[in-house]
């Protein structure tokens, strides 16, 4: 379907193409991801993420030294952190059953994520058996969850009156994706599972490590930490009450609007994200300055190179007032962790909330040195 669809991502199909509307997969993917990762849907998703993470952290696990109330030294803190954040992100988006039905999902997920560089080289299974097996395991897990969700909740009930979230499908977006995929008449269960497998990767493979870098950059700089912590604390609407077993609640708005918190976020992404943005002029040759990109040629833009080796021409000395303001003005084409142009990644607002939200929740419950 992807190879066959030459109609573009816009609502209006590229002139001269004839893919039926219900099979315009590029456009549909793009339009739905914009719709369900912004506005009300985004607010619901982000609020669920924060509250699921807070609920999980508030539960005392007697077997976890971190919950002992004493200072503990942990050799590698990343797995501890990662597993809580990915569980909250996965539950907020896909509901609790994907993880419940597949208790090894987290481990399988990272094994699959690490296999992607091998899989995209398209080695056959006999040359890369572990990478293929990692993908097959994840696909089977998503299929199992799809079958269970279909049995328990009607995915065709996904219009305006449908709840924004249900425990079987998670976000309404997943029901919409399922119905669209079914309606193409082309996708079988493997195809449907592949689509949502890709979404598990999109949702966590970058955002979870970036949330950790956000934590590291703040906590490893005591001067910065002392400025940021009071900001993070302003997002707490009800503090945790350990005696009553009551988790804290949060409203992230002041953190999301904080120039300091946002500038750290932007720097973390500039410094720590390294992706390849891929483009292809698929209808005619494309001219950029002195270069002509031939129709059908692939172009790859490395975000890390762009982030480290370009200088802005910004010279705003006269505007350097004491009032802080966050903006990415004048950074067009330079600050590109999320890509750019029409394909600029629509979930950036959720990624931002995952990064800032996870550190805000963590900072409320723990001290870390
Ligand atoms: C720090 C975290 C993240 C980074 C750096 C990132 C980066 C990107 C980039 C570079 C693209 C391709 C854009 C292009 O080609 O210009 C993309 C696409 C996409 N990402 Fe992310 N992403 C992150 C988190 C997320 C999250 C949390 C989600 C979902 C909840 C998500 C869902 C998607 C989707 C659905 C697309 C395809 C969009 C389309 O077809 O229009 N991403 N992302």
From TrEMBL:
InterPro entries in UniProt: CYP450_sterol_14alpha_dmase, Cyt_P450_sf
Family annotation (SUPFAM superfamilies): Cytochrome P450
Protein keywords: Heme, Iron, Metal-binding
Source species, domain of life: Eukaryota
Any GO MF annotation of the entry: steroid hydroxylase activity
Similarity annotation: Belongs to the cytochrome P450 family.
Name this protein carries in UniProt: Cytochrome P450
Provenance organism: Viridothelium virens
């Amino acid at each position: 379907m992807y190879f066959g669809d030459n109609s573009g991502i816009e609502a209006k199909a590229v002139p001269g193409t004839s893919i039926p509307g219900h099979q315009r997969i590029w456009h549909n993917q793009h339009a739905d991801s914009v719709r369900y990762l912004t506005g009300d849907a985004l607010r619901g998703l982000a609020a669920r993420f924060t509250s699921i993470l807070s609920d999980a952290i508030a539960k005392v696990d007697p077997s976890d030294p971190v919950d002992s109330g004493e200072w503990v030294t942990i050799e590698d803190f990343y797995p501890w952190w990662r597993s809580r954040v990915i569980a909250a992100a996965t539950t907020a988006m896909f509901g609790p059953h994907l993880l419940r039905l597949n208790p090894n999902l987290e481990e399988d997920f990272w094994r699959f994520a690490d296999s992607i560089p091998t899989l995209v080289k398209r080695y056959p299974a006999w040359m890369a058996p572990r990478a293929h097996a990692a993908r097959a395991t994840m696909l089977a897990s998503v299929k199992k969850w799809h079958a269970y969700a279909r049995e328990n909740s009607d995915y065709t009930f996904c219009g305006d009156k449908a709840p924004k979230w249900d425990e079987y499908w998670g976000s309404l977006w997943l029901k919409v994706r399922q119905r669209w995929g079914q309606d193409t008449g082309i996708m079988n269960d493997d195809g449907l599972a592949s689509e949502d497998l890709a979404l598990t990767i999109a949702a966590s493979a970058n955002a979870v490590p970036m949330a950790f870098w956000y934590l590291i950059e703040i906590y490893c700089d005591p001067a910065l930490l002392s400025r940021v912590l009071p900001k993070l604390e302003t997002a707490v609407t009800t503090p945790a009450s350990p005696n009553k077993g009551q988790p804290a609640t949060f409203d992230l708005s002041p953190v999301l609007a904080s120039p300091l918190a946002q500038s750290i976020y932007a720097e973390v992404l500039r410094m720590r994200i390294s992706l390849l943005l891929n483009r292809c002029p698929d209808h005619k040759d494309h001219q950029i300055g002195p270069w002509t990109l031939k129709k059908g040629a692939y172009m790859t833009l490395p975000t890390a190179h762009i982030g480290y080796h370009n200088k802005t021409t910004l010279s705003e000395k006269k505007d350097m007032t004491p009032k802080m303001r966050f903006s990415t003005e004048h950074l067009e084409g330079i600050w590109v962790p999320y890509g750019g142009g029409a394909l600029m990644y629509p979930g950036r607002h959720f990624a931002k909330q995952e990064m800032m939200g996870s550190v805000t929740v963590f900072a409320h419950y723990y001290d870390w040195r």
